[in-house]
Inverse folding.
């Protein structure tokens, strides 16, 4: 067996957190809605209002090359609806290039104080330039300059390169009445959900997993396990 104690004396294999007890299981009759977007809104509201959740809208975004080489990083959710889950980035970054070449992605929210997680999978579409511009100009001015400064994922010689470019742009746009143009390489994407899974942790590791999905073409669902949701969704319980 591999050594489970790291160089700092931390026994990684022994790290184990207690989640919820048997009296706090999450059952189907506790769903706020049989529409997963409405259900997400209910859980997201709880997370956003919980003072122990640092950033309720922080999510892991996983993308992949056409050859199946995955990459993942944390980004921020900037809006959601039945049309999809929005985030913004540099189109020339690694994730931007991977989405352009292979327009599918997965999102994962983890709200540790609530022992809850939500996973989302689906195709990705770019937002319109108008939608991206509207959001860009709603950001703090410093964040707008930051987007213009950074050619995300490119190699630079050091922090000084960023500092110098930021200084130049701050001087260029010192007049705060002057609008900072959105860079052409910056904008938003929408992940269109085809699968949305709601997970709640149990101390016994018999976690609760309820997944909503779009029915497959020609599928005849097993009515004992597959339930009809709202707005074209079906939902099922998965073994943990």
């Amino acid at each position: 067996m591999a050594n489970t104690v790291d160089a700092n004396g931390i026994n990684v294999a022994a790290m184990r957190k207690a989640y919820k007890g048997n009296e706090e299981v999450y059952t189907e009759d506790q769903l706020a809605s049989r529409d997963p977007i409405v259900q997400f809104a209910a859980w997201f509201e709880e997370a956003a209002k919980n003072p122990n959740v640092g950033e309720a809208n922080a999510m892991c975004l996983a993308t992949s090359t056409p050859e199946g080489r995955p990459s993942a990083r944390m980004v921020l959710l900037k809006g959601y609806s039945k049309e999809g889950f929005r985030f913004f980035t540099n189109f020339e970054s690694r994730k931007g290039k991977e989405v352009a070449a292979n327009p599918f992605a997965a999102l994962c929210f983890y709200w540790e104080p609530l022992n809850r997680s939500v996973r989302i999978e689906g195709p990705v579409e770019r937002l319109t330039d108008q939608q991206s511009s509207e959001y860009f100009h709603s950001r703090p001015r410093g964040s707008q300059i930051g987007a213009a400064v950074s050619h995300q994922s490119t190699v630079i010689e050091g922090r000084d390169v960023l500092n110098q470019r930021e200084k130049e742009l701050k001087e260029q746009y010192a007049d705060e009445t002057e609008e900072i143009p959105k860079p052409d390489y910056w904008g938003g994407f929408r992940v269109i959900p085809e699968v949305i899974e709601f997970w709640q942790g149990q101390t016994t590791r018999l976690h609760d997993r309820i997944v909503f999905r779009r029915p497959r073409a020609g599928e005849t669902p097993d009515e004992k396990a597959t339930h009809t949701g709202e707005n074209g969704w079906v939902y099922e319980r998965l073994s943990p």
